[in-house]
Specification:
By secondary structure, the protein is α+β, with helices and mostly antiparallel strands. It is 62% helix and 15% strand. The protein has helices at 2-8, 10-32, 38-71, 81-98, 112-119, 121-137, 162-177, 200-217, and strands spanning 102-110, 144-149, 152-158, 186-193, 221-224.
């Protein structure tokens, strides 16, 4: 959580650090090389602080942009698979410590190839952005919505049991089914309750197998109960 807050306010944090460093440098200079011109020290302190704050703000913006581009999908602006692996590992560790529930949902678009073949790839990209908007706009702040790649998405549901995750996903399925922006594209979803003893590779395979079952019917949600 603290990492997310840091990168959200990186520019302000680094700029503030620049101000602190600037004032500190001027104070140290005054102590070591004191003279009678107190006003000149104030001007110098303000000048150095402003310069360092400006440099810090620019560096902070660059850090924000680098973090954003490294963890965001360019087309949909959702989190990407790199971020997913990092976040999933952290959520599993959190789940073990707090004894809470954790679910993941694998989502695949039904007959998406038909959109590209019929209307072209630009229309296909619009559908992907539309679905991304629905997923991101109708999940909770704590949920992590990821574009897994191509026409697949993943959602991590922290502190959520299988029944509640099922309700959330079913609502998303209905919204996408009824959206004009999605050009009648529907979604198939496999939902998995994560167990503490599971390895990441194991739970991903189980989630993928669950999604495969949903794809057999299409426009359907399948829950994996480990049975």
């Amino acid at each position: 959580m603290w990492q997310g807050l840091f990168f959200k306010y990186t520019s302000a944090v680094v700029a503030l650090m620049g101000i602190v460093i600037g004032i500190s440098m001027c104070l140290i200079h005054e102590l070591l090389l004191a003279n009678n011109n107190e006003f000149s020290h104030i001007i110098a302190s303000l000048f150095v602080s402003i310069i360092l704050a400006l440099v810090g703000y620019i560096c902070g913006k660059l850090m924000q942009n680098l973090h954003h581009s490294a963890h965001r999908d360019e087309l949909t602006n959702l989190w990407n698979s790199r971020y997913f692996y990092s976040k999933l590992t952290k959520e599993i560790e959190k789940m073990k410590k707090t004894k809470s529930s954790l679910c993941i949902a694998f989502i695949d678009l039904d007959n998406f190839k038909m959109i590209n073949d019929t209307y072209g790839h630009i229309a296909g990209d619009e559908v992907l952005r539309g679905i991304a908007t629905i997923l991101a706009g109708n999940t909770r702040y704590s949920d992590i919505v990821v574009r897994w790649g191509g026409d697949e998405f993943v959602i991590i549901f922290p502190d959520t049991n299988l029944a509640n995750a099922s309700l959330l996903v079913e609502r998303l399925r209905r919204m996408i089914e009824g959206s004009r922006d999605c050009r009648q594209v529907t979604i198939s979803v496999g939902v998995l309750l994560v167990e503490a003893e599971m390895e990441v590779s194991q739970l991903l395979k189980m989630a993928d197998d669950t999604l495969y079952k949903a794809k057999k019917t299409k426009n359907f949600v399948v829950l994996n109960t480990h049975l």
